[in-house]
Each structure stands twice: as structure tokens, then as C-alpha cells.
Amino acid sequence: MARLPVYLRALHVLADRGIVTVSSEELAAAAGVNSAKLRKDLSHLGSYGTRGVGYEVQYLVYQISRELGLTQDWSVAIIGLGNLGRALAGYGGFASRGFRMAAMLDADPAIVGERINGLTVEHIDKLERVITDCGISIAVLAVPAPAAQPVCDRVVACGVTSILNFAPVVLTVPDRVDVRKVDLSIELQILAFHEQRKAGGPAGVEQEYLEAVDGP
Amino acid sequence: MARLPVYLRALHVLADRGIVTVSSEELAAAAGVNSAKLRKDLSHLGSYGTRGVGYEVQYLVYQISRELGLTQDWSVAIIGLGNLGRALAGYGGFASRGFRMAAMLDADPAIVGERINGLTVEHIDKLERVITDCGISIAVLAVPAPAAQPVCDRVVACGVTSILNFAPVVLTVPDRVDVRKVDLSIELQILAFHEQRKAGGPAGVEQEYLEAVDGP
DNA sequence: TCGACTTTGTGCGTGCGTTCACAAGGGCTT
DNA sequence: AAGCCCTTGTGAACGCACGCACAAAGTCGA
Ligand SMILES: NC(=O)c1ccc[n+]([C@@H]2O[C@H](COP(=O)([O-])OP(=O)(O)OC[C@H]3O[C@@H](n4cnc5c(N)ncnc54)[C@H](O)[C@@H]3O)[C@@H](O)[C@H]2O)c1
Ligand SMILES: NC(=O)c1ccc[n+]([C@@H]2O[C@H](COP(=O)([O-])OP(=O)(O)OC[C@H]3O[C@@H](n4cnc5c(N)ncnc54)[C@H](O)[C@@H]3O)[C@@H](O)[C@H]2O)c1
């Protein structure tokens, strides 16, 4: 379930405030979902609340963390230390959630050897060895679009089965491999779509096209 | 439909290769979706293909661009020029899709006044004026979590109705406002979840918890 | 100890998105 | 000009996820 991380975050906030128990209604509001959905999600993973009281925050944090596999640390490799890769590498919010930045790789000789956040950038040629040695289980691709598929293939060949892809391409991978794609251009385009709807929607279909192609 | 941008990207690739027409089957493969779904999506927005041939690439590009509102330029403000904000500001992939970085805002005096990608970072105090003057219609929030809701409120008060949020918080906004959230920690957590499943799933439920809390 | 109140867990109806499968329609070849 | 073949557009079934609403269950006060 993709909502568990959201619940977990909300629970951490509550825990930090010293709150011991929480009702499904309160937690659902904090997570921005329906309370019935929340209860169904929680019951689905076998956690029990107490009727008349609610859920014990600490217990739920542990249950969800375990379900998500956050009771262990995961080693992550960042491939491509350009604009985006550096931002990710310098972000502290990952380490605090059990994700350890274990390796950084790039093809640019000017970047290889650089130290970022206490880690030395390795050359992409060493990919296979680095991934094996560091016990990488998740790869983050922040390389240009044309490089994404080739790099992805190499990563998969090393046995990595989880990939977070920032390049604007559809990656082809074997079934056993999970790919999640973050495409910021698409997010903006979806916003633009709705924005346009609010403003009255598109008009002058055929006319506009002919003018654009042939001139007025 | 959230898939239109994906189709559009695939079409641009085809157009660059000089391809004139494309069948739903081919385009669907390139976009990573089912061909029936693709045809339904396209028919849904009124575009017509030619039976026995397929769709004209250029025509489809124009149709989808128009539907998404990409025939006009949108002015975007980036708020928070830290790690992530800078990466976004320096990214060329937005401008080429009709999104103009029109304003940058930050609260840190050390950052205000800096020039990034040809634009001067303004102080967040000037938010209201900048948004109005630059005709901002989309705001990108790349500020720390605690600052997100207050900044969001101010942006919404200026009349902005589209927000892209990178802060790990659930934003509360009026109904007319669209918020899209990009949460990279959640993406990693979802990958970890599946990774754990592949490795055999969680085991030793109650036992583990009691040990973690009470000691062995 | 008992009753009233609170909150969980879930059965069920509903609505949406996906997918199969096919008929209608247009091009291309002969 | 006519038939063959390819591809679109869509009807209909399927499945899933959401959310309402309620009974079971446990707590807290008297
Ligand atoms: N920066 C953004 O805000 C942003 C937004 C949306 C999408 N993206 C996408 O994210 C990806 C990275 O963006 P960026 O702005 O960081 O680009 P960038 O050009 O700044 O960085 C890319 C890095 O990848 C390295 N690289 C190139 N080929 C490589 C290879 N074969 N193996 C290893 N490393 C290689 C380059 O040396 C460079 O350091 C791109 O696909 C881009 O489209 C970025
Ligand atoms: N960097 C990443 O890879 C990454 C990954 C996931 C999530 N995020 C989230 O994105 C957001 C930004 O991350 P970051 O790494 O760039 O953080 P950062 O601390 O590097 O940058 C935040 C910027 O926001 C500015 N700021 C603070 N308060 C402000 C206010 N009230 N108004 C305007 N500007 C203000 C700061 O001066 C700073 O420049 C955070 O919420 C973070 O949790 C970042």
C-alpha cells in the first residue's frame, strides 16, 4: 500500500508531540485520507487498535515500519551527480528513514573523485564492482535521458531489483524489477491541464491548428 | 488524464525520428501502456486517427499539447532555493515544454540577491508583489516542511491555484486549488516495501516488537 | 458491577478504470 | 473498381478500490 508511508509520517509527528494514542479519525485527518480507508488499511496489515480508544502510536509506528521494511537499513546508489543527483545526495531526510547513501557514480571525469556528503564519486565503469561491494539494493537514476536505459540494464544485470528513475524515459526491465518514475515535467503538465480547465478550457480546435501549421 | 504527457513525450521522440504516422499499438508500446487504453484516451479527447493507418504524429502532438494547455506558456515561481530548488531552477527540461521560470523566492538573506539561471532571487517578503507582477500561475514549493503550509497559504491568498509541493507535509488548501505532491522518501519506502517482499516478507512479528521495546 | 459512550473492524453497494474482443471503416494492391 | 487487410473506435464484462453505515467490542464513569 502506497499510503503507509504517509501514515507513518503523520504518526512520527504525533509521537514527537508526545501523543500516546490516536483515533482513526484523527490520524486520517492528519494523513489527508478517509477514516474508513485508514482503518481498512491498518486492519489489512494485521495491526490492532483498541475499540473505544484508538491506536497506540508507538506500536503502530513499529508495525508500519516493519511492514515497509524500515526496520533494516537499505543501501542506495545514486547514479548521475548533476543538478538533481547532488540535491538528492545532500538531503538528510533519507538517512533518517533508514536509507543509506552508499555509493555515487558518474561518467564525467570532472565529477569523479569529488567528495559529496562524505562520499567519493566513483567512475561509472566501476558500477558492477561498487554495487556488489556496497550491497546496493536500490539504485537512483539521475542521468540524462539517453543514458538511462543503458545504465539501467547494467544495474539490473548486477542483481538490483529496485530502481527510482528521474530520467524522462520509459524504462524496460524484467518483471522481477520494480521501477518507480518521478517525472517533474509531467507533474507540471498535469497542473497546467487543470489550470487551463479552470480558465475555461481549450477552444478553436481546428482553426488554431491550421493557423499554427500553415500560417494565418 | 495523467497519461497524456507520457504520450506526448513518446510522440516527440517519434517526431524527432521523422516518423509521420504511428499505430496505437506502437505508440502504446513506447508509452508503456495498453493499446486499447491509449485509443480510448485519444478518442476521449476527440482526436481522430485513420483506420488502417494510425495517427498522424504531428497532428496528435498538437492536439495533446492543446488539451494540456501547452500551447501557451505558464509562469512558474520556485519558492525555496536550497538543494532541490536550485536543481529545479537549473533544469532546462521545463522551459522547452512551455514552463517559464519567472520568479525565485527565498527567506535566507545569504541567498536573496543571488543570480540563478539568469534570475535574481527575491526575498519571500515580496511574495505577494512578485506573484502578481510576474503573472505566476504555478508555484513550486521547495522549502523545509515547517514552512510549507504558511508559504502555501500566502501563495493561495495571491490567487495561485496550482501548487507543486516537495515538502513532506499534507497541505491544506481550498477546493479550487490543485496540489501535486512529490515525496521522494515515500518513493524509496515503496521500493523498500517491495524489495522486502521479494526477500521473503516480514517475520517474527510480536517477538521482534517486544524485544525492540523491552530488550531481549 | 452495570450501562452508556466511543471507536474499531467490516459487509456491502457503487462508481470508475481497465481490458478483451469485434464490428465499422479506410487504404492499398491488383 | 473491387476485394483484402489493417487499424480504429467502442460495447460490454470484469475487477478493484472507495466510502457509507452498522454491529461488535472495549472503556470509562457512576
Ligand atoms: N534537474 C532537475 O530539476 C530535473 C527535473 C526533471 C527531470 N530531470 C531529469 O533528471 C536527470 C538528471 O537531471 P540533471 O539536471 O541532474 O542533469 P545533469 O546534466 O545536471 O546531470 C546528469 C549527470 O549524469 C552524468 N552522466 C551522464 N551520462 C552518464 C552515464 N552514462 N553514467 C553515469 N553518469 C552519467 C553526467 O556526467 C551528469 O553529471 C535528467 O534525465 C533530467 O531530465 C531533472
Ligand atoms: N533535497 C532533496 O533531495 C529532497 C528530497 C526529498 C524532499 N525534499 C524536501 O524538499 C524541501 C527542500 O529541500 P532542500 O534539500 O532543498 O532543503 P534546503 O534546506 O536545502 O532548502 C530550503 C530552502 O528554503 C528556504 N526557506 C526556508 N524557509 C523559507 C520560507 N519561509 N520562505 C521561503 N524560503 C524559505 C531556505 O532558506 C532554503 O534555502 C524540503 O521540504 C525537503 O524535505 C528534498
Structure in a nutshell:
Two copies of one chain form a homodimer. By secondary structure, chain A is of the alpha/beta class.
Rg of chain A:
22 Å
Spans of chain A of at least 5 consecutive residues whose pLDDT stays below 50 are 203-216
* Total helical elements of chain A: 9
Average of per-residue pLDDT values of chain A = 91
Our estimate of the beta-strand percent of chain A is 15-25%
Distance between the termini of chain A: 52 Å
CATH superfamily caption of the largest domain in chain A: NAD(P)-binding Rossmann-like Domain
Instruction: Count the domains of chain A.
Output: 3
In terms of quaternary structure, the protein is: homodimer
Q: Would you report the number of β strands of chain A?
A: 9
Helix content of chain A: 40-55%
By helix and strand content of chain A, what is the structural category?
A: alpha/beta
Query: What is the largest interface, and how many residues per chain?
Result: A-B, 69 and 69 residues
- Assigned CATH architecture of the largest domain in chain A: 3-Layer(aba) Sandwich
Bound molecules: nicotinamide-adenine-dinucleotide
Shape, principal axes of CA atoms of chain A: globular
Question: How do the helices and strands follow one another from N- to C-terminus of chain A?
Answer: HEHHEHEHEEEHEHEEHH
What do we call the CATH topology of the largest domain in chain A? Rossmann fold
In spatial order, strands of the major sheet of chain A run 5-6-4-3-7-8-9
